[in-house]
Every structure is written in structure tokens, then in C-alpha cells.
Amino acid sequence: MVHFKVTDREDVSAAGSFVTLLLSLIAGLLVIGLIFLLCGVNPLFAFKKIFLGSFGSWYGIKESITKAIPLILIGGGLALAFKAKFWNIGAESQLLMGAIFGTWVGLNVDPTLPSMILVPLMFIAGFAGGALWGLIPAVLKLRFAINEVISTLMLNYICAEFLTLLIVGPWKSSKKFGFPYTDDLPESAILTLLPGSRIHTVTLVLAVIAVVVLTVVIYKTRFGYEVRVIGENPDAAKYAGIDFGRTTLLIMAISGGMAGLAGVGEVAGIHHYLSYPDSISSGYGFTAIIVAWLAKLNPVLVIFSGFFFAAILVGGDAIQISLGLPAATVDVFNGTMLFFLIMGDFFTKNKVRLASDKERA
């Protein structure tokens, strides 16, 4: 039987890390091309359609920017959590909870308030909603040692069902017929769009500022140092006197809160009412996991990786229409890319070689 020996790499150069990332992307695209081929589609033609669907027109570019907004916000928050090796898989529900809290403020606070007051209140409420939902798995891990992958994943389903309960029950609009929705948000709660697009500029600016600030926090502040130490060696962090519990709670409050901001942006900027979970989010919470990994957990680089995967989402819609491929094609694309990015990250940090006879013994 063949045995392998895995050892840590002592020095990981920036150039080596970049080459590994590039090879991971190429390998992922080759496998995706093979999948297209098995589906009876010319891979080069499919990739061309994806590219043209995203960048071949002003409409595609504007739609890519629109979809990049929630990915940047959520990806930045996930980069922070993953930096501390807290595996937050629940950003989808944190987005939805932010949308719920923001919508409640928009519908129940005085609609005669000017936008400059009502909109910030909605974003504050959305951040609070996402943060509170993010704190639940943090408390479960700290108090009961419950694995955060399981708890954050399960909370996605709970929140989705809770949102559905609201829109078919107490929050259902009496003025609309057909599918259940809430009442429309008042005019003062609706975000201004870039003319001729669906780009809600307030959330876009907020997303860019948030990830830039978060990058400074991670690399230039004591809190950021604590986050990095916890991620690299939790035992050393405790020995150094770092408050593991407080830092973990703060990490998840920020990570969940940023997803909550994305939820407010989607409701106030795109939909203008609360509807089914799948309508509010196109799986942004899951796609943002790949966004964070592609950015090497650097929040400012999330701006670029977020736009890249937003373009894939837009291009994926294009090939569904033009090539007749199922909607799951985009999920397969994203899942394949995530697999190769994680594998690339593993080989960046570890050496793998055949074990000697002595080591096998």
C-alpha cells in the first residue's frame, strides 16, 4: 500500500501562493470543461457564452456589479471568520435575517421620515439581525462545544422557514394577490439606483468601505492580531492571554452583521418588499464562501473575487437560456471551483511526499 507523508511548508512565498492559486483555477476550469463536454456542450463555446453574458454588453456588466454587491459584503465577513478558523456556513441565513430586520424597520417606522434617516436605520437593524443570528452558533460552540459547521448550516433552514412563515402569515400583504409578499416599502426606504441599472449605489459604496476598513482592522489592529493568532494556534492564543470567547463573539457579530447589510441592500435596492428566501438571495451566502477563499481571506481582495463570481452567476444565467442547461449548472461550477481552491490552499501550506520505509514502519 502506498503511504504519503504530509509536512508543513516552512516558508510560503507570495509568488508560490499565486502560482498555486492560478493552477487551482486552471484545474477547476478544465474539470468544468469536461463536465460541459459530458453534457454534450462544446466547453469553449460554453465559456465564451459565459464571458459574453457577463462582459459582452453594458447590461451584463451592470448586472455583474449588482450581484457583486452582496458577495463583497458577505465575502468580507466570511474572510474574517475563516481567518480565525470559525467555519461560518450560515451567511445565507444571516443575510435573510438582516432582510427581515431591515424590512420591519422600513414598514413600521414612520414612513414620513426622510431617506437619510430611515435608510440608515434599516441598515443598522439589518446589521443587528445578521449579527444576532451569527452569535447563536458562536455561543453554541463556546458553551456546548457544538461544531459550528453543523449549527450554521442548520440555521440556514430555520431562518428560511421563519421568513416563509412571516410572509404567508402575519406579514402577508392584504393588498397583493397571488404569491405571498409583504407590503411594499415606502418610497423613503427605497435605495437610489444608478440610472439604467439595478446597482444600488449606497450598498455598493458601503460594501467597498466595509471591506477596506476590515482589511485595516485585520492587519493593523490588536483585534486583528488576536483573530490571526486564534486562527493559527488557538492554544497559543489562550496562553498569550487572548480572550478567546470575547473575540469569537465579536468575529461572528461582524461576519453575520455584514451579511445582514447585504440582506437590507437586496430588499431596499432590488425587491422593495419581502418575499420567498430564494427570491431575496440567489445563494449569495454560499457563493461568498468561494469568494472569500479565492481572495485568500483578504477582505479587500474580495472586491475582485466577488465581481469575478458575480460575473459567473450572470454568465450562468445566459448559458441556461442559450444552451438549455439546468439551473444547477452554476452550482456545479461554483462547487468545482471551491474544491480546487481548497485543494490548492492545502498544497500551498503542506508538502506531500511518499513515506519512506522507516516512516511507514
TrEMBL record:
Cellular component GO terms held in the UniProt record: plasma membrane
A GO MF term: transmembrane transporter activity
A UniProt-annotated Pfam family: BPD_transp_2
Annotated localization: Cell membrane
Broad class of where this protein is predominantly found: membrane
Stretches that traverse the bilayer: 20-47, 68-87, 117-140, 152-171, 199-219, 248-270, 327-348
Entry keywords, A to Z: Cell membrane, Membrane, Transmembrane, Transmembrane helix
InterPro entries noted in UniProt: ABC_transp_permease
Membrane topology recorded in Swiss-Prot or TrEMBL: Multi-pass membrane protein
PANTHER family with a match to the protein in the record: ABC TRANSPORTER, PERMEASE PROTEIN, GUANOSINE ABC TRANSPORTER PERMEASE PROTEIN NUPP
Name this protein carries in UniProt: ABC transporter permease
Species name: Desulfosarcina ovata subsp. ovata
